[in-house]
User: Fold 1-phosphofructokinase from Streptomyces fungicidicus.
Amino acid sequence: MILTVTPNPSLDRTYEVPSLHRGEVVRATGERVDPGGKGVNVSRAVAAAGRRTVAVLPLGGAPGALVAGLLDAQGIEVAPVPVAGATRSNIALAETDGVLTKINAPGPQLTADEQELLLDTVRRLAPGADWIACCGSLPRGLAPSWYAELVARVHDAGARIALDTSGPALPAALRERPDVVKPNAEELAEAVGRPLATVGDALKAAEELRAAGARAVLASLGADGQLLVDDDGAWFGTAPADAVRSNVGAGDSSLAGFLVAGGRGPGALASAVAHGAAAVQLPGSVMPGPADLKHSAVTVTTEVPVNRPLREPAS
Assistant:
């Protein structure tokens, strides 16, 4: 079982539009409503892979009830933490050329009691989990140190934890030695405080996160591929994506692919790459199932192309 924790879940509405022009009426050609948040997306991808998952998330108001109902309809067990504030609603506009515009609401402010109940719920469920994936931004009311406290409690319960967050929460959590951290290129650049122009720059940044406490780093580099750096070395994985429709949840799908494949080594990296490449070719935040994956198209090597420029340099 893979347990996910989403401190700031959402109800996500995705509209597919031909193009976006400010100040004009834009007619959507497609529409989806999905439960959202990075940890929620990981659960959805794990469920699509046919594995059991439990989603821990604070829920409030009518949007929270709808999120729970949508997850239940997808066969995902929900461990709700009731909160007084309403769960946030987000909007994504996906253009046909692959450009995505997102409007993310701030979400409710959690009280001290609600924060503690969220931590205690994870601690209570942790012993039954193969992996715990804690993902996304922190809602109002939670200090950057909250993820560090969560990592410590998970380890005290004897479980493994993968962390996907950014900003001050990431360096704060590293001191508790999360088993895996999963930044993208921009988050890597932010964490080390300098731009990344090449794959080699990303590799060096990943190594610095390991030196700061991360036991392994799974770094998504967008169209350039993914890096895995751990005690056994470094691997670089790539796969073609014929037509990019939406990158919403692609990184979350990658993390799910990594964890369902064991969460360690080149085989897990190959699974992460296959899941990420499949996700970007699906509409909105649809998570890929086994039929969408093209494992034969994935290449994983220990020969990291350190001099290769990133197509989207991170600053």
